[in-house]
Amino acid sequence: MNDLRSLSWQELIQLMEDLGEKKFRAKQIYEWVHQKLVQSYDEMTNIPKSLKEKLKTRVTFYPIKEVERYVSAIDGTTKFLFELFDGNVIETVLMKYHHGNSVCISSQVGCRMGCRFCASTLDGLTRQLTVSELLNQIYWIQKTTGERVSNVVVMGTGEPFDNFAHILQFIQMLTDEHGLHISQRNITVSTCGLVPKIYELAEKKLAITLAISLHAPNDTMRKELMPIANKYSIDEILKACDAYILATGRRITFEYSLVAGVNDKTEHAKELASRLSGKLCHVNLIPVNPIKERDYERSARESVASFQKVLEKNHINATVRREMGADIQAACGQLRKSYRDRQKGDV
After folding, report:
1. Catalytic (active-site) positions
2. Positions of E strands within 146-302
3. Closest to 211 (Cα-Cα) out of 182, 183, 189
4. Global pTM?
5. At residue 331, does pLDDT exceed 60?
């Protein structure tokens, strides 16, 4: 059974026809769901009770339940832990910048990619998030804070390209003029490098930003950090990126988590610069967030600055990601993992 929030504008019009209802009802319902951001049929005050009853037999309309909320005393970053209809929990982060509010959403419950430095993948993949659940993370935050979300980053728990069809539909609905109408240019989607999906995304010619989680300058090192490297080489990823840039004209962001003594040395920076030379790209350097299950340490500030300087000297645009919410477990998967451990009594 479909969730009401997952139905497109045209699908909702078709549903009204199937139910023998007037076409204008579709517009009313769509506005309730995607503009007024309601969480239940009961909140739709101008929809007849008879139609609500019909809808309940045809489509689900699951609310999202906020379980925990933490606000950083350092920078105001807010982390939400949401419970889904089946009891699974996901986490979402609201980051406030001068240019507007940015929300980082999860794309799966858990993750099966196995990246060594990430808490999201410790318990594996439980399931995909539906289009409704992707949208509702943003809708809940905008509704409860009363502040518009202007930027969306699909970079939380999960591998977005492992949930590809739902991500594409999510982007279409989030940018739809009948909904929140967020610009495609204000959406970033991250992948650890599922090469066939990069080519597939290129064919869509979207105006979103594609972010590639690279984290290493060569395949040997990348295989130690990211199991996906055993399937797709860096050369294969970069070839797919070239095709994406050619098709869209969009600059690609390469994410690079810096791990002390592992991938943060000067020779690594020089090798990375050589691999990316001449590409329409930007490198986002991320001092890794330590997690207790792994023994990786964050790179020293001096090492990060030195790494950045080498890239820029070689004409590679590079920035260091500003750390947000360090005091509230704002890194991917940390809050969900600690919540589950608390529920099981492991802490």
Report:
1. 91, 332
2. 149-154, 187-191, 209-213, 252-258, 281-287
3. 189
4. 0.92
5. no
